[in-house]
Write a structure and sequence with these properties.
The complex is a heterodimer of chains A (321) and B (261). Chain A has 321 residues and is α/β, with parallel strands linked by helices. Chain A contains eleven helices and 13 strands. In chain A, helix 2 (61-69) packs parallel to helix 3 and helix 3 (83-90) packs across helix 4. Chain B has 261 residues and is α/β, with parallel strands linked by helices. Chain B has helices at residues 8-19, 33-44, 82-91, 130-136, 163-169, 171-174, 209-214, 234-244; strands at residues 27-30, 51-52, 58-61, 75-79, 94-98, 102-104, 109-110, 113-114, 122-123, 138-143, 151-152, 178-184, 187-190, 199-203. Chain B starts with 7 loop residues before the first helix and ends in a 17-residue tail after the last helix. Classes of the chains: A alpha/beta (321), B alpha/beta (261).
């Protein structure tokens, strides 16, 4: 694994950086490296933000943590929801959640999302999972809507009275849901490997809908467990694992624990102990406060990693369990 | 095998397996342990062509044990990431057996929330794929805790679409709509009635019709002659106990270990 190019630019916004190419015969290429905080500083309150991954799997958590550190609020979050949604709700960052489900997988429900809904602190746009895919796909393809059966007859049509149906112009005359495009101001995804130009490699078994989120968005940020040279992708996996291409990405973030505590196979599995601790803090405000100050009220993702490592070391030493 | 007397859990497993009879070469998606054992039993016996996923993103072949540490890695026969799941289900080549926090007289199902949707008393997981599933391919439900709180007159939020709501939504909703069966710890239910309301198809051994009626929050159609749900065959019991669920994971859903045979 060769890491290439100049050091990551600091605070570079809208400036043109370049790096030496690792590909023979190529000159300098765009260097899209930035930090989590630099990426999030390009967003503003009130935006609609799509978050890739699925449930508690391959979520761009280091970017979510950067939102938690920022002064952004009033966000509309579009997600196949997991702890990304829960944490953002817990921190009061969310105005509206657009979702088909919110689950931690090994723990069926996220307690912070539940509390936010039950206490009326977030608005909801609840959709069938396939409708959510269709909305992102329509946005990606620059179509106003895509037709589908999904939603017909269900409560989704009642609680989203703005949804319309469309009648087929052909002989069948079927009346279908016209799922509108879900256009995103920004998309955040996490992958296993990326190069500085913004090509992304997904080595896990399921790419989920990450490429649709990126294509549906105005500003596109991708974190990766590791940065590799373009010529190194083939050492990690075949070309069909290169699900994200650089046309889809504005900023690349190196994030070794970028999906923690969700899973990022094959780099690491879900940190079940950490997830249980997270979910458990919902029962006790003091515990939540402790979690927040230890893991979230940190200056950088680097400090988060140190806090996680310190906890792991304590657990290994038998100091806490 | 004298210790292999059938339990209520085994009867429920067989009822789930029977729900998949005749499905042929389609994908089945069983949610819950008893449906999972049932689907694997069906494939091991009378529906060998069913496709089953590993719960992640692969179709897996062979006789699959559940919850068995150290079991051999299953043989992968296909790739089924979520984007492809949606393709398969809109294509119609799927039968899903979902859970339900509530189900009503016409087979509407709720897994979204309890109380008023705008600020629910209890937020549940969300509608998930239930709206799309129900209008695209056969759907069944497994409800291990049959009570007036789960079998309700009207569900609080229609996630899976029942017969009345599908009919009201028009032909595009009814075209591929089918609620095959609802299976509970008390019996098997279908919608073979004139108005497509729920009917008691069979009661599990040891359960009375009165038990079913008093545990149901709406009026069921009760045929004059209600059959008893069938017991597993000796061959099926061997598959269940020795090959598919040797650790007894199914008893977490239906705890009784008493013989019903």
């Amino acid at each position: 694994m060769s890491r290439t190019g100049s050091p990551a630019p600091q605070g570079g916004q809208g400036e043109c950086w370049s790096a030496a190419s690792t590909v023979p015969g190529e000159f300098a290429v765009a260097d899209k490296r930035i930090t989590e905080d630099e990426a999030i500083s390009q967003l503003s309150s009130g935006m609609t933000i799509g978050i890739g991954g699925w449930g508690s799997r391959r979520k761009p958590m280091s970017l979510v943590r950067a939102i938690l550190r920022s002064d952004l609020d009033d966000l509309t979050v579009v997600s196949y929801g997991g702890p990304d949604v829960g944490l953002l709700c817990a921190a009061g960052k969310v105005k509206r959640v657009v979702f088909g489900f919110v689950s931690l997988d090994s723990i069926p429900l996220d307690p912070f999302f539940r509390a936010a809904r039950q206490e009326g602190r977030v608005e909801a746009t609840e959709l069938d999972e396939g409708m959510l895919q269709w909305g992102l796909y329509a946005a990606a393809l620059r179509l106003p809507f895509l037709p589908t059966r999904a939603g017909l007859g269900s409560g989704v049509m009642d609680v989203n009275p703005w949804l319309r149906t469309v009648t087929s112009p052909y002989a069948d005359g079927e009346e279908l849901v016209a799922m509108p495009a879900i256009t995103l101001d920004a998309a955040l995804v996490h992958v296993n490997c990326a190069d500085v130009r913004g090509n992304g490699q997904i080595l896990g078994i399921d790419p989920y809908f990450d490429n649709l989120y990126l294509m549906a968005a105005e500003r596109r940020f991708m974190s990766a467990t590791r940065l590799v040279g373009t010529d190194d992708f083939s050492r990690y996996g075949p070309p069909q694992t290169l699900v994200v291409n650089r046309m889809m990405v504005d900023g690349v973030i190196e994030a070794p624990l970028g999906a923690h505590f969700t899973s990022c196979e094959p780099d690491y599995g879900r940190d079940e102990a950490f997830q249980s601790m997270y979910a458990g803090t919902a029962r006790d405000p003091d515990e939540w406060e402790k979690f927040r100050t230890t893991y979230l009220e940190v200056d950088s993702e680097h400090q988060y990693r140190q806090a996680v490592e310190a906890t792991a070391a304590e657990v290994a030493a038998g100091a806490i369990r | 095998m004298s210790d292999m007397a059938p339990t209520l859990a085994d009867v429920c497993v067989v009822a789930c397996a029977e729900a998949f009879r005749g499905d042929g070469e389609i994908m089945v998606s069983p949610f819950g342990t008893v449906p999972m054992v049932g689907a694997r039993l069906a494939r091991a016996t009378f529906e060998p062509d069913l496709l089953l996923s590993d719960g992640e993103a692969c179709f897996v072949a062979g006789l699959l044990p559940i919850a068995t540490p150290g079991a051999a890695r299953p043989v992968v026969e296909g790739w089924i990431p979520y984007r492809t799941v949606f393709d398969m289900l809109w294509w119609g080549r799927r039968h899903v057996m979902m859970g339900a926090t509530q189900v009503d007289k016409y087979g509407n199902q709720n897994i979204s929330c309890l109380g008023d949707w705008s600020q629910p008393k209890v937020q549940l997981v969300g509608v998930r794929g239930a709206p799309g599933n129900t209008v695209n391919h056969p759907t069944s439900y497994w409800i291990p805790n049959h009570s007036p709180r789960t079998f309700v007159e009207r569900v609080d939020m229609v996630s899976g679409v029942g017969y009345d709501r599908a009919a009201a939504a028009g032909e595009a909703a009814t075209r591929y709509h089918q609620i095959r069966v609802v299976i509970s710890d008390k019996g098997v239910f279908d919608f073979a009635t004139e108005d497509r309301s729920m009917r008691l198809r069979s009661i599990h051994p040891g359960v009375s019709v009165d038990d079913v009626v008093s545990a149901t929050g709406f009026s069921l159609t009760i045929p004059s002659d209600v059959p008893t749900s069938r017991l597993p065959t000796p061959e099926e019991l061997v598959f269940i106990n020795e090959s598919i669920d040797p650790t007894g994971a199914r008893f977490a859903e239906i705890p009784s270990r008493q013989s019903v045979g």
